[in-house]
Structures are given as structure tokens and as C-alpha cells.
Design goal:
Distance between the termini: 58 Å
Oligomer: single chain
CATH class of the largest domain: Alpha Beta
Number of strands: 19
Order of helices and strands: EEEEEEEEHHHHHEHHEEEEEEHEEEEH
Number of domains: 3
Helix content: 10-25%
CATH superfamily of the largest domain: Chloramphenicol acetyltransferase-like domain
Radius of gyration: 26 Å
CATH topology of the largest domain: Chloramphenicol Acetyltransferase
């Protein structure tokens, strides 16, 4: 009779913790090898975690909603089904509260040592997660390296392992991550911490020269706005209150941050998809025989990928006062889920044929809805496409997916009457048409650049070559 530990997996090298969002099995249930037994949420993706072995779920050690370090034992399986009765509610004696340094989160090399020791982790605010298990039980005398040779302790290294987005936000606002109180594991700084730090005014406090006296306000001038806090809405009788899922909270934070960071501008083009519609009708059956649904979105994604190479400043990112022109063209395709929104990424999309792009869109969309995506499949996007047109929206003005600098919105594609010229004679004809809008970051993308890119995408779609299908 053997017991097997079920651990919190490390879903990507930059991820040090995960939130156990839902148990799919309960104590006493039989499980098969590779059968999903619980769901987790990380900063990158929601995923179902399979059982490492067949057996019976003997113990649940981490409850729903708890955030723990990777490699933490969250449950135990009994490999002999008949040997286990449902366990009594006795999780308290064995609750695994590992020290942050003992969680073994980082096989990667440590970052360069900080010039000063990292401050002690601040108590976690209740707003995002409850990492008590990660911070409480590390003895003060336990650091491996300490300050002896200037090397970081495991806890300090974990604290500095912020996500690329957090590091980007800190660089853009000239913030020192080590000076920001973190609410993550071992005081790790999250996106919320950066936003809260900036909103608190601490980021703008220059500690040096005393502030000059404020000039007297002119008559009729409104008082300067300080931090505006909006009162939370109260539920009324009969209302139903639904707490946000983790993915909904992360999306909300990300959208607010993007609006604050980027100078959003939109340009809208109308596209004649008649050529694409003809090719799609011609090839749809052939693609279906190969297991691929050929959609208008596949044609649009292919046209975008091919034209991003000619417009590198659209396939870019901002780093402080510099522009990063991305080598790879990685298209994010927004997927609407019942519980939120996720953006899986087609890596090096410009190297794929139309068939390859269509297959990738089908595959990533299906696995996003079934929670089968890997964390690396939602990272390193360089440009995003969102498609509300499938719901009938004529067009939208989306928010840029940071740290990118542009996002394309696809409106509904429908047959419409249009004026066409044949041999110099105008007439009314039925054409397949729809809108495309581009939201771009005016800090580095000028209106002329955005319009040239959109004009090229439009021309590609209206003259799509037979050889590309």
C-alpha cells in the first residue's frame, strides 16, 4: 500500500506559485492516471491538472482558493483503491505550509545580487491572494547563502522573480521593484502591487527637495484632483453577488493598467472580403477533410502576419524611452470563455501557410475552452487579434494587450450592397464586406504608420492570391 504525493506544478519558468481554484474530485473518489483532479490558476493560464497515478484520493491538503508555492503537496493518492475509506475532516495537523525557501521554485540561475538586501516581505493585502502558507514558517536563521558572499537567499531570489510584465511596468515608470511592498509569495511583486504603488503617490514622491509652495488657484479653477476612490456598489434585495474568478480579476487589472500606460488611438477600415469568400467556398471542403475549419479569421491572421514584417513598429513593445522591434511575429488570438478571456499565441505565424494558421487557430481555441493550454502558449505575443464580429458586432475599439503596441478588431462580415465599377461603368452589386479597426499606442506608432499597415492588410485580403490557399 503506497501513497503518492500530488504537487502544485510549475506552469512555466517564471511562475513561482499557483492558486488551487477548484477540486474536480473529493476525498474517497477513485481516479485514473492522467484524469483531471483539480484546477489551478496562475498569472498566465487556468489549467486542469491530471492525476500522476491511478488510485483513490486519500487526502486533500490545500483547499479551494488557497495560493501555494510550486512543488507544494496539495493532496495524496492511495494506490490501492480498497484500502482507503473517506478520510475524516482532519486536514489541520498536516496542512503543508512550506517555507518560501523550501519550495524549490527556481531551477534557473539567480539574478545578479541586489546592491542592498531586499526588504522584509510586507503583509499581503486581502485584495489578491492569501499567501500565508508561503511566508509564515521560514525560520529567520535558515537562509542558505545569506549575505556571506553577497549572494541572494532563496527567498530574496524568489522575490526578485517578478513576471516580465511587472518588470516592464517598473522600468517604464522608473520604479525599483525591491522598494515596492509585494503581496505575492515571499513578498513577490505583482501587477496589482505596481498599480497600487503608483496610485498611492509613493512612486512620485521625490524624497529630496522640499515641495515649492503651490500657486494660489485662480478664481473659478476647480481644486486639483487627488486620488479618486469610487464607492463600491452595494447589493440590493434580490441581487445575486458573483465573486470574480481569478482570470476575470487579472483581466480587469490588465485592462486598467493598459489604459493608463498606452496612448490609445483607433483607425477603422472597411474591407471587401468577396475574394476571400470565394476562396473559402472553394477550399472549405478540402480543409474540412484535413480536420481544419477554414474561417475568415484564418485569412485575416495570415494577412496580418505577412504584413507585420513590412511594418516592424507595429510588431513592437516599449521599454522606458526605447522601442523594442520584435524579431518574431507571434499572433495572439483572443478567445472568449464562459469564465473570462484568454489570448493563446501562434508563434512565428508569418512562417506558417494558411492551412497552418487555420489549424493553429482551431487547436488553440479548442484547448483554451477545455483548459488544456500550457503557460508558454499564452506568452510572448507580439500582436493581438480579437474577433467580436462572430457575435454580430459591427466594429469595436479594443484595449491594447500589454506589452504590445497594437491590437486588431474584426467586425461582422456580411453581404451588403455596394457600388462597383466595371469598365468604367458604376453599378450596384452584392459584396461581402466588414470593418477592421486597429487600436495602437501613439507613443511609438504614428497615425500614418498605422494607416499604411491597415491599407496593406486590406489590399492583401482583397487580392488574396490562389497560391496562398
Amino acid at each position: 500500500m503506497a501513497r503518492i504525493d500530488v504537487i502544485m506544478p510549475q506552469m512555466g519558468e517564471s511562475i513561482a506559485e499557483g492558486t488551487l481554484s477548484r477540486w474536480l474530485k473529493k476525498v474517497g473518489d477513485a481516479v485514473k492516471r492522467d484524469e483531471p483532479i483539480f484546477e489551478i490558476s496562475t498569472d498566465k493560464v487556468d489549467a486542469e491538472i491530471p492525476a500522476p497515478s491511478a488510485g483513490v484520493l486519500a487526502e486533500i491538503l490545500v483547499q479551494e482558493g488557497e495560493t501555494v508555492a510550486v512543488q507544494t503537496v496539495v493532496a495524496r493518492l492511495e494506490t490501492e483503491a480498497g484500502a482507503v475509506a473517506p478520510a475524516p475532516e482532519k486536514a489541520a495537523p498536516e496542512t503543508p505550509k512550506p517555507a518560501a525557501g523550501a519550495a524549490k521554485p527556481a531551477p534557473e540561475a539567480p539574478k545578479p545580487a541586489a546592491p542592498a538586501p531586499a526588504p522584509a516581505p510586507a503583509p499581503a493585502p486581502a485584495a489578491e491572494r492569501q499567501p500565508a502558507a508561503a511566508t509564515a514558517s521560514a525560520p529567520p536563521s535558515a537562509p542558505q547563502s545569506g549575505d556571506v558572499n553577497g549572494a541572494e537567499t532563496a527567498e530574496e531570489r524568489l522575490r526578485r522573480r517578478s513576471t516580465p510584465l511587472v518588470r516592464k511596468m517598473a522600468a517604464e515608470h522608473n520604479l525599483d521593484i525591491s522598494s515596492i511592498p509585494g503581496s505575492g509569495l515571499a513578498g513577490r511583486v505583482t501587477r496589482n502591487d505596481i498599480v497600487n504603488y503608483m496610485e498611492s503617490g509613493a512612486a512620485a514622491a521625490p524624497a529630496a527637495a522640499p515641495a515649492a509652495p503651490a500657486p494660489a488657484p485662480r478664481p473659478g479653477t476647480p481644486a486639483p484632483a487627488e486620488t479618486v476612490t469610487h464607492p463600491a456598489a452595494d447589493p440590493w434585495e434580490g441581487d445575486r453577488v458573483e465573486p470574480w474568478s481569478r482570470i476575470r480579476k487579472l483581466t480587469a487589472d490588465h485592462m486598467i493598467m493598459s489604459r493608463r500606460v498606452s496612448a490609445h488611438v483607433n483607425t477603422i477600415f472597411e474591407v471587401d472580403y468577396t475574394r476571400v469568400s470565394q476562396l473559402r467556398a472553394l477550399k472549405k471542403r478540402e480543409y474540412a477533410d484535413r480536420g481544419v475549419n477554414l474561417t475568415f479569421l484564418a485569412f485575416i491572421a495570415k494577412a496580418v502576419a505577412d504584413n507585420l514584417r513590412k511594418h516592424p513598429n507595429i510588431n513592437a513593445a516599449v521599454a522606458a524611452e526605447s522601442t523594442i522591434l520584435r524579431r518574431d511575429i507571434n499572433l495572439g488570438i483572443a478567445v472568449a470563455l464562459d469564465w473570462g478571456l484568454i489570448v493563446p499565441v501562434i508563434k512565428r505565424a508569418d512562417e506558417l501557410s494558411l492551412l497552418g494558421v487555420a489549424r493553429a487557430i482551431n487547436d488553440l481555441g479548442e484547448r483554451a475552452r477545455s483548459k488544456k493550454l500550457n503557460p508558454d502558449e499564452v506568452q510572448r505575443g507580439t500582436f493581438t487579434i480579437t474577433n467580436p464580429g462572430v457575435f454580430g458586432s459591427v466594429i469595436g475599439t479594443p484595449i491594447i494587450n500589454q506589452p504590445q503596441v497594437a491590437i486588431l478588431c474584426v467586425g461582422a462580415i456580411e453581404k451588403q450592397p455596394a457600388v462597383v465599377s466595371v469598365d468604367g461603368t458604376d453599378s450596384i452589386a452584392i459584396r461581402t464586406r466588414g470593418m477592421l479597426s486597429l487600436a495602437f499606442d501613439h507613443r511609438i506608432v504614428d497615425g500614418a504608420d498605422a494607416d499604411r499597415f491597415m491599407a496593406d492588410v486590406k489590399a492583401t485580403l482583397q487580392t488574396f492570391p490562389d497560391t496562398a490557399v
